[in-house]
Structure formats: structure tokens, C-alpha cells
Amino acid sequence: MASIQTEREDKYDATSDFVLPSLTELIPKGGAIDVSEVELISSYFDTPGLDLLRRGITLRRRRGDSDTGWHVKVPADKARTEIRLPLGSGEDAQVPDELASVLAGVALGKPLVTVATLTSRRRRHVFTASDGSVLAELADDSVGVQAEGVPGHRWRELEVELGAAGSEATLKLFGKTLLTAGAQRGTHPSKLHRALAVNLEKTQVPELAVLVDYLDEQAQAIFAGDVYLRRGLDPIHSTRVAIRRYRSTLRVFGALFDEDTASMLDSELAWYAGLLGEVRDRQVLRSRLSDAVHELAPELVLGPVAARIENDLLAEQIRHRAIITTELDGDRYRALLTSLGDLSRAFPAAAGAEDVDAEELDRLARKAGRKVRRRVAAAVAGGDDEALHRARKAGKRARYAAELVKPIVGKKEAKVRIERYEAVQEVLGEHQDAVVAAQKLLELGRKAGVTPGENGFTFGVLYAQEVAAAEAARAEVSKIDV
Question: What is the pLDDT confidence band of residue 149, given thresholds at 50, 70 and 90?
Fold first, then answer.
């Protein structure tokens, strides 16, 4: 059975003649440093087209130290999630079925083969606190590569991995020491990426690099979510957010894409987001309504209200989660993942997109902001739920567009825009959640009202609260400064 852990490390590049600085100042009072040397042999597996590596995911079989075994590493914000299996007694060159199934989506159904073997001479420095707990591990690696089509070469790199007792401040302290001594921030996310970077070239329009990088970031999150779903974890929310960002980019900057490709991707991502949304909606409702019941005065809770809410919503959630599990192995879903990978390799630019500059990208982002103002004004004037929902979606698109152009407009300006549209999302999001909750409470109340031993009264109380919450949010809309 595979185990899961989170790895947080920073990488640094160093020349062969780099002199490691004195590390004694990094040892806390009463702590210690243990130094050892080891040779590591890591065989990396991927599809022939490096589909895993293109998504920032690596699969390796390692020998040589306590890390011996199979490791899948998946990006997770600043950290990486590591799925581990011990080496089996059988054929070591065969990827274990448990890991192959977890990676089936990212691999797009293609075989996993050995793509490189890296040999590392590692000098390890383990820093411990006075109680023996590990603060950090500094690895000084001399790395050699063997891979088809790649000239054999060596390089040196440093890795600082956070221990159980360490913190971000620990990493910052180590980084300052190494940078002062002449090391450089690492330029590759993994050793395999550095070894095979020449094989990862992609066709893109240079002027659209900011846009393509943003889409790649979202695609990476979608693929990471696929791995987590197949592992039985819950990346529903983060995957949906990545899909929203991707679709928003297709909409806001749509004039830069080949129309047919953008339309197809938007439609298929909407389909997948819908599947995930059925699960996420139940998760949100379970939490919201559970809190609401517990906040009621005891005399207002008549019958097994909490149980009715939890049992019904959990059953629905499990049913929709099973649908996702089935679709993960379907042709439609695999075609979607393939299309995301294709766009990453070769951007489907519209005619004339090569003439676009940074100013044009920012103009389109600002246009999305003006659309928010129009839709909020329409929602205030009309006040119907659908108008408010449209304003909310426009706010999300404008926010994501502001994220995308951050490298163009600068962090300060981007932050102002993002916070402005987040305020729209917050108010209108509360309105939407209240509307959905009220609708569900009507349904649950009707069931309770005709079920022996239950009572619809409390559901009516909760319904009234949600209607009031929706009205309060509606009133707040007119105060939003966009």
C-alpha cells in the first residue's frame, strides 16, 4: 500500500568549484548536524513523449539510502505531494500497478518506460533541534545523467528540504546563507527536468508567453487533481478553481485563440467542471447547513434535522463522486486531457496573435473589469438572482485576468485589481450560496414533513434564514466599489 507525504524543498544551482559555507551558525542552541555521504541511483519513468514531466510530475525508482523505493512526486503549491511504495521482490523495471493506475490519466493511456537514469553523489547535512527533531536537510549533489538522445554530463545542485520541526523561516535562513556564498536560485523544478529540458521544447508565440504560462499553471493543477482523484483524495475544489481560471482565460483573451479550439476546450472543461461541481456543491451545503443547525436554539430543532441533512447530502455526494470515478477512465475525459496537453505544446493562436503586445493583453484584462461594473449595475437595477450570478461570474473572470497580467502591470497594481474583484466574488458568492441552500432546504423540508418521526418546522426556520442572508447580500451589492 502506498504512503503519502508532503515534501517542501528549495533548490539552488552551484558550480563545481563552489565552496559550501560554514554551516555551524545554522545549528540551533543544543542542536546538532550530522554529515554523511551516499550514492543514489534513480531510474525515471515516463511516457515516450514525457507527458508526466510536462505536467511537473515525476516517477522514479531509487536505490541507495533510506529513500529506496518508488516515488511519484506531484506539484502542490510551493510543496510537492510524494506517493511512495517500497521496492518489490519481483521485476524492478516494471512500474507497480498501484502507481501505474494513479498515473493513468497523466500518461494518457501510454506506456511508462525508462527515460533516464541519474546517479547522484550526495553529501547530506541533517540539522536537528535539541530534542532530536529534524529541522532541515541540506543535500550537496553531484549529478550525472544517462538518457537516450541526451549527451552525458554532470552538474552540481543543492537542495534544502524542510524537516518536521522546520518552518518557512528555516528555509529562508538556509537560502540566505547559500546565496551569500555564491549559489544561485535553482532554474529547474526537478533533476529530471534539468536532464531532459532539451526534449521539452514547445511551439508558442513569444508575445503570448505570459498567457501560455498562466494556462500551463492551470493545466498542471488539473492534471495534479487527476492523480489525487485516482488516489482517493479530495482535490475537487482546487481542480474546479484551475478549470475556472483556464476557462476565464479562454473567454477574456478569446480573440487570441483559434476559435474552434477555444470553443471545444471551453465546452469540455465546462462538462468536467459540472461533474466536479455536483460533489463540491454537496460539500459546501453539508458544512453550511450543519453549522446553521448547531447555531439554532435547541427548542427550534424538532426531529433529526442534522441527520436528515447529513445523510441525504452525503449520499448524493458519494453518488456523484462515483460518477467522476467512472468518467476518469472514459474516452471523453481522456480526450480533454489530451487537448490540454496539445495546447501546452503548441499554442493555437488566431491569425494576427503574433502582433499582440503586453499593452493589448492588459487592455483585454481591463475590458473584463469594465464588464464587471456593467453587470453589477444591471444586477443592482434588476435585482434578480440570475443577474447577480452573471455579475459574480464576471467578477471571477476579471480577477483571474488580473492575475494573468501581474507580470505586465506589476504586483502592486495587480493586487489592487484582484482585491477589488475578490470583494465582488465574496458578496455575490454569499448570495449564491444562500440561494442554493434555500432551494435545498425546501426539498429537505418537504421530505421531513411527510416522514414519520420527522418535522418540517426546523427546515422552515433555516429556509427563512437563508432567504434573509440572500437579501442581505443583495443589499450589499450596491455598496461594492468596482
Answer: confident
